[in-house]
Amino acid sequence: MSDPTNTVYVSNLASSVTRGRLQEFFAFAGTIENCNVHHNEEGDITQAAVTFSSPEALGTATLLHNAVLDGRPINVQLQPSSSPLPFAQGDLADDLFRVLPSNPKMRAIAKKKMDDVLAKFIITAVDSTFKALKSQVATLKETLEPKMREGMQPIVDAEASLLKQLDEKVRDPLKPHLDKFVVPALAQVTKVILGPVDGGFAQFLKEWNARTDEVVKRVQDKGEDGLKRACSYTGAHHFYWSYWGGLREPCHKLDEMREPIELLGIICSHVRGYQFVSDCYSMMKELARKAYFTLEIQTRANMKAGDSVADAITKAVEDVQGRLLNDTQMYMHQYLFDRLKQVVWEPLESKAIPALASLVEPLDALIPGPVKQFISIAGLLERFISDTVDGILEGAVDEAASSAIEGLASAV
Predict the structure, then answer these.
(1) RRM domain: from which residue to which, for each copy (predicted)?
(2) 302 lies in which domain range?
(3) Residue 7 is inside which H or E element, if any?
(4) What gap in Å lies between CA 298 and CA 282, rounded to an integer?
(5) How far apart are CA 392 and CA 182, in angstroms?
């Protein structure tokens, strides 16, 4: 005979549920002693009483209340219903507390089992939800992505058309003025700036080579113990005053270059002075620090590979010199370009772009209504001018830098 104190009462069952399915569903709560079912007139199971061999299983079984079995949430109660209708909703917390064992050890075992069951159901629910969402996202992507691409195509076409008209209406009339005034001015300023930069960096490399000769001699004399001490002193501050003296005259010379071109005057006022020299010096100091750090690491690596101290540092110096030359060229070119773009863009943004805006204002009427929120004539004009200036500056810096690169190579 079944023990009613070890029994849970199940209702609201789907018509497809069988006795075997019920026993399988509740099996992990504990060992099932008996499973009595109640059928309706159609022969479907509507209620069941599942009896376990021990009361500890009840706590786990009640956690299955509202769990989905064959597509329907089931009711799991500790008290039988007085009618064939689904069991009344009782206070599960009170029922659970009543059936849990009073022994602390048994309570801990029961709690762990309940936690395991709860975790299992959470993982199952999250996993099924994630899979469903992933499927929905994939479906939405398949259906919406083509529509989005189709919807964006008019915007892309409109922007391309506007850029073409902008090119025709602005670039052609603007190009003669750029070629006659702005391009020569930028090229001249770049050469004047690059001259002392070339000399400064060439002097820096010569000083670095001289200092490195001292490092090599110290390492050869004192061995590995002198390597770190020798490489820790960059000597970069020795280059500063000679570099500042070499730049001072060319910076003043910029004043003499001022033509009746407002843009050139603004450029000259921005690139000369202490800050420009200080920035270049900071770059040299950082280059020297990295070079000596690399020299130390490379020397140790060569020694680890079996080279003598003398051979290890000689090889390392040759390797680091090549890297330093490449880094110097890169730093110098990038700094000049960024610096020139910065000082040129300010007057263009404040004066040239507003003046040119009137030329392209009629193009605003050509933008289709639905795409006006995505395309701005002002934004297109700004991008057009920025690209044009980038091309001019790249050309000027590249042309003027050729002699500097030769000077740097001869310095090493």
Answers:
(1) 6-81
(2) 153-411
(3) strand 7-11
(4) 24
(5) 9
Q: What is the total count of domains within the chain?
A: 2
**Residue 76 resides in a domain:** yes
Q: Rounded CA gap, 77 and 58, in Å? A: 10
HSE at residue 69, side-chain half, CA atoms within 13 A, is 26
Integer Cα distance of 398 and 187 in angstroms: 10
Tokens of 278: 């200080």
Kindly state the percentage of the chain with pLDDT values over 90.
0
**Which residues, in sequence order, are CB contacts of 256 under 8 Å at separation 6+?**
none
CB atoms within 10 A of CB 363: 17
128 within some domain: no
For residue 243, the model assigns a pLDDT of 46
Which 8-state DSSP code applies to residue 75?
E
Q: Is the pLDDT of residue 291 over 70?
A: yes
CA 403, 405, 406, 407 dihedral sign is positive
Residue that is last in its domain, among 66, 100, 134: 100
Collapse the DSSP code of 42 into the 3-class scheme (helix H, G, I; strand E, B; otherwise coil) and give the result: coil
Asked if the structure places residue 147 within a domain, the reply is no
Quick one: which H or E segment has residue 299?
A: helix 274-304
C-alpha torsion 170→172→177→182, nearest 10: 80
Q: Do 90 and 190 reside in the same domain of the chain?
A: no
Q: What confidence category does residue 392 fall into, taking pLDDT thresholds of 50, 70 and 90?
A: confident
Q: Which of 56, 85, 100 is the last residue of a domain?
A: 100
pTM over 0.70: no
Report the C-alpha gap between 181 and 170 in whole angstroms. Answer: 17
Phi, psi at 18, each rounded to 5°: -115, 170
Cβ-based burial of 284 (10 A; exposed 0-12, middle 13-18, buried ≥19): buried
Tokens of 238: 């020795």
Distance between CA 190 and CA 401 in Å, rounded?
Answer: 9
Residues 44 and 166 in one domain: no
Q: Is residue 43 part of a domain?
A: yes
CA of residue 281 relative to chain centroid, distance: 32
CA angle 224/227/229 to nearest 5° reads 130
Pair (177, 326) in one structural domain: yes
Q: Which of 30-44, 175-189, 285-299, 328-342 has the lowest mean pLDDT?
A: 175-189
Angle of CA points 226, 229, 234, to nearest 5°: 130
- Report how far residue 200's alpha carbon sits from residue 277's, in angstroms, rounded to the nearest whole number: 10
Q: Which residues are CB-contacts of 199 (< 8 A; sequence separation ≥ 6)?
A: 246, 407
